[in-house]
Amino acid sequence: MDAFIICSTDSTSVSEKPKKKIKLNIRRQYHEDYLNIGLSWSGNVDDPRPWCLVCGDKLSNESMVSSKLKRHFSTKHSHLVDKNASYFQRLLKSETRQSEKMTKIVTISDKTQEASYLVAELVAKQMKPHTIVEKLILPACRKIVKVLF
Question: Which residue in 1, 67, 60, 75 sits closest to 26, CA to CA?
Fold first, then answer.
């Protein structure tokens, strides 16, 4: 029976706690060659994430390895494999122009936003269903005009 019992003579190993694995926080950096396979990056230096120009998916930073990026491109966009880098550069340029135009169109002035808040506040003070707005249109419009002009 003694042959099956393992005795340790070192008493310190019993009292030691097992060491936990330390996870390294590695941030992979974007490389310009990724544009050749249709991927750009989010633009955030602290957390660079690959962004697919074709489908708009934002992938994780861990997938910023050329093999994983190529796998995404070949599985989801196999019809664009034969496209050259100039195609993706044009696609990136059009995406940036479109997003710049959209931000110019969608911006709301501070006064308009404040007026909208005042209308919502009037509705909330009534503590009744949203149909009460019909009774509030005149006072709300007065407040809107007062704020805007």
Answer: 60
135 shares its domain with 96: no
Within this chain, do residues 95 and 49 fall inside the same structural domain, yes or no?
yes
Spatial distance between the Cα atoms of 90 and 38, rounded to a whole number of angstroms: 11
- Domain of residue 101 covers 25-106
Q: Which of 2-6, 32-36, 46-50, 113-117 has the highest mean pLDDT?
A: 113-117
Q: State which H helix or E strand residue 50 sits in.
A: strand 50-52
pLDDT at 80: 85
Q: Give the span between the Cα atoms of 91 and 86, in whole angstroms.
A: 9
CA 34 to CA 38: how far, in whole Å? 7
Are both 88 and 129 inside the same structural domain? no
53-98 pLDDT tens trace: 888 888 877 777 878 888 888 888 888 888 888 888 888 888 888 8
Q: Do 115 and 100 lie in a common domain?
A: no
pLDDT tens digits, residue range 131-146?
Answer: 666 676 777 778 888 8
How far apart are the C-alpha atoms of 69 and 72, rounded to whole Å?
5
